[in-house]
Amino acid sequence: MKGANYIDGRWVEGAVPFETVNPSDLDETVGSYTKVSEEDVRAAMAAARRAQPAWGAFNMQARADILLKAAEIIKARAQDIGLLLSREEGKTLPEGVGEALRAAQCFQYAAGDVVRAQGEWYNSMRDGFNVLVTREPVGVVAAITPWNFPIALPSWKVAGALAYGNSVVLKPSSFVPGCAVMLAQILEEAGVPAGVFNLVMGDGRATGNVMIDEADALTFTGGTATGRTVLARAAETMTKCQLELGGKNALVVLDDADLDLAVDIASNGAWIQTGQRCTGTERLIVTRGIHDAFVERMAKVAASYRVGHALDADTQIGPVANVQQFNENLQFVADAKAEGAQVAAGGGAVEGRTRGLFMAPALLIGTKAGWRCNQHESFGPIASVIMVDDLDEAIHAANACQYKLSSGIATTSLKNAERFRKASQAGMVTVNAPTAGLEYHVPLGGRAPSGYGPRETGTAAADFFTESKTSYINHGAI
Ligand code: NDP
Prior knowledge:
Layout: E1 5-7, E2 10-12, E3 16-22, E4 25-35, H1 38-56, H2 60-76, H3 78-89, H4 93-115, E5 119-123, E6 129-137, E7 140-144, H5 152-163, E8 167-171, H6 178-190, E9 197-199, H7 204-214, E10 217-221, H8 224-237, E11 240-244, E12 249-253, H9 259-271, E13 281-287, H10 288-304, H11 323-338, E14 342-345, E15 362-367, E16 382-388, H12 391-399, E17 406-410, H13 414-423, E18 428-431, E19 451-452, H14 461-465, E20 466-474
Parallel strand pairs: 7-8, 7-10, 8-9, 10-11, 12-13, 12-17, 13-16, 15-16, 17-18
Antiparallel strand pairs: 1-2, 3-4, 5-6, 6-20, 11-19, 14-15
Helix pairs in contact: 1-7, 2-4, 2-6, 3-4, 4-5, 7-8, 9-10
Bound molecules: NADPH dihydro-nicotinamide-adenine-dinucleotide phosphate.
């Protein structure tokens, strides 16, 4: 695995070396990799194009078996993957291992998709005719992933693409490429033919541009600003696109909520996994009657968390994943204070036993829906509370934000829950449940500008990873 790029079945070393550091301990180097040239990225795209037709025509059972084998290997190595993930991205070890197991499940599910029926047969308006609607691989898929789910996210993109007979070129985040390298090793070991899966590392824009220009389809997860750039580029070549982007997700807590449950799901959504989830709860919209009790309980929970080194057994909240995000988080809290927010808990750097990027989970109170802190994604362990009078105002506040990824409500009233579920403009809604994570059998995603194009997972995966073909057959002439 020299250089850790995998192109056309070979491990390739690029000219530009780079290293990753452990966010739990900035004195520890985790991985050494190299970035390849644009020419190498073109070679990866070309290899994927050469390999795709044979993979698209590969025996169905054999293709499913390869994906299942990949799932089994991931499962068997979940501890190793989880450990690397914890060291490179900063999730606690149980979170890292859990993510690896979820990645295995994505491959397992995708293996089933290989053999599921893929076509419809219709009667025709013309006598003696029939109409056949079939699905074909979209072709070469470019997959670009962010840093916050370094094994699950590449896995659900790659598994879906491969299941439907596509070849793939994956570019992981430069902050956390280690798990993608492990994935490449596993796919090689599972028997994915040379060129069908390729891994390249490089600067986002330069590498991304080549991939977008030369792919048939792009599946991208990352920030909304990057998503806009990527979409503009894809428009030039009309590359099919699906983008999963940023969020500023709201949880509404009504007076009639079960307070214990509301605190549980709000704290989980806001702070667990260091708040580094696209569906993380960043806005807590709370009605007046329950507001003070809710805030008091939330502040206590925030203060009770053990923040520290991701590999310490008692750590509940690991470090922020990288220096850039850490600085942005602290600045976010400072800006919120400047616009009038009060800090009910956390918000500052925390000393640890190592030189890590530790931050105390923050609860900001006294904020208004239109403030910057409620309009911009923080992507850190920071939640702000907006007090409202009733459900109408709560719905308005929840929707009064450009992001439309996920939302939730805590209430014991079925009527209120259903009103909110229908009125929410988010792509995913939870009722009395922590913010949505990936359930691999159903679509995940938001409406623009939190998402764009078809969803990529579960029952929706076929919409993106295949093209539909409608055939009219005159049986009378055969
Ligand atoms: P970025 O948008 O910064 O980067 C995402 C990926 O895009 C990286 O691999 C990056 O490469 C690459 N990239 C950067 N610039 C370009 C470009 N011009 N063309 C093509 N690719 C490019 O996101 P982060 O990694 O910081 O991830 C955090 C963001 O991801 C948050 O906004 C979060 O909400 C969102 N996200 C959304 C999810 C969803 O399902 N909706 C799920 C998870 C995260 P490099 O690292 O080399 O710069």
